[in-house]
Every structure is written in C-alpha cells, then in structure tokens.
Amino acid sequence: MANSAAGSNQSYLTQYIPPKGMYEQFEDESDYFEKVKEWGLSTKKEFWYKDRYQHCLVTIKGYEIFGETAEFNTLVIEFPDGTLTCIHPAYLKEMQSSSFGKEIIQQAPGDGNSAVGMKTKKPKAASSAETTVTAEKPAKKEKAKKEKATKLVLPEEKVHFTATVKQFALSWNHFNEDNDEVVVFENVRIEQAEPIEVGLAWGSHSKTLKKHELEPGQQLEFDGKIVKKSLPKGKDVEDESMLLDVSVAYKINNPSKIAKK
What we know:
Layout: H1 2-8, E1 24-25, H2 29-38, E2 47-50, E3 55-66, E4 72-78, E5 84-87, H3 89-95, H4 102-105, H5 128-135, H6 137-149, E6 159-173, E7 178-191, E8 196-204, H7 207-210, E9 219-228, E10 250-260
Antiparallel strand pairs: 1-3, 2-3, 3-4, 4-5, 6-7, 6-9, 7-8, 9-10
C-alpha cells in the first residue's frame, strides 16, 4: 500500500477522462459479475490502476456504450478520492499484470498518455480522395436516417417478456478472446399496455437460465432489460450447429422471475 500512498501525492498529474453525462450502472451484484466476466476481468470489487503518477485500487462504477451496434463498452472507474474517469476494459485488464507499468514509468514526461491507454494524435489533413468520398456520404446518411426510423424504441427499465427458446449458440467475446455460450430467443414480445414485437433477441446462458434446463421450442415468460447490442458470431467453432445463421440485434440482460409456459 506504500505505492498507493506515494502515488496519491501526484494523482493530479494523471489525465482523467470523465464520463460524458449519464452512464450505465449495474442493476445488482449478479449484473456486475456478469459484466466483468464479459470484459475478461476477474470477479472482484477492486482493481489496480497504474500510471507514471499513481498506483492505487479503483472500483468500476458503470460503463458507457458506443459503436454503431452498441457492442463496445468503456468502463467508468472511481479513484479513492472520488474522481471518475473512463478506461477501456482491455487496458484495465492489462494493468492487473504485475509486470505492467515498468515501461510506462520509463516514458518521458508529456508523452500524451491518457487514462484510456491511447496517445493523442494530431488531426490529419484530408486528402483530395477523402474529400471526394465525403461528398458521396449524404446519400448514405439519408439511408441511415430511414433505417433508424424503423428501429424499435426500447424501454430503459425492466419489462416483462414472453419468448421462445430458438437455440443455443456460441458467441465471440473479444474481451477474453474466447467463445461464450448464449441463448437465442425468437417470438420475443414485450408485454405492456402497447406490446412491442421484438422478434429475435439473445442473452448470456447464465447460471440463472441453466437452472431451468431450457430446450429449443420452450416457451417462457420473464422480466428483464433489453438493449440494442448485436450478437457477435462465434469463431473457430467445431460444432456448426452452435453458430447462428441470422443476425440478432437485441440483447436481454438479467432475466428474472422465469416461468415456463
């Protein structure tokens, strides 16, 4: 803990990147453990943060979602003094290694390293070819606007679902570089005053779901939270029946109150 105390004196030199407004928070402990597992981190409450100026324990307060299909996350971590900053999950994972930091300490001051583990780069002037490509983008933007207009407006809170188990599949987890088993649902419907027909959705084959010994064709009802997140296709899968041949754009998190129909 001596390193942590010594580092706190220079913590003001760390380049913090605070979250932009509101960020996703964990619903409960099981949600937290499921997320850190997805990010390839160990299931614990504190992690080491290391840079040239401080070496201390931080906690994960939540995460930001980005990417066209919302498949990427940036973690929001909290330092002992309450300061929040954003960091890529893979970079925080690297910091847990005992060998991490030796090269950083030797770097010259003012190297531009930030809390997300990237160096800032000067903007590059657009070439004539890039200008031509940019001129062709308005048509694509119009198409994108039309596609967005047809997207479902998803509720932010937990809702009640009915669905049918379509199949089990393998999905590539780029954080831990391995395949995870998931459940793919069909005929997914959000049951409310004005029901929403979702169609296909997927979710982690968690311990909660495994307890119910689900089978393809099984009809279910449950509570959960739905988000826009595409199902990554599995890699190097020997059993091709564990690969899905259609795209799935929505993910269901933390199903509870599960009942077979």
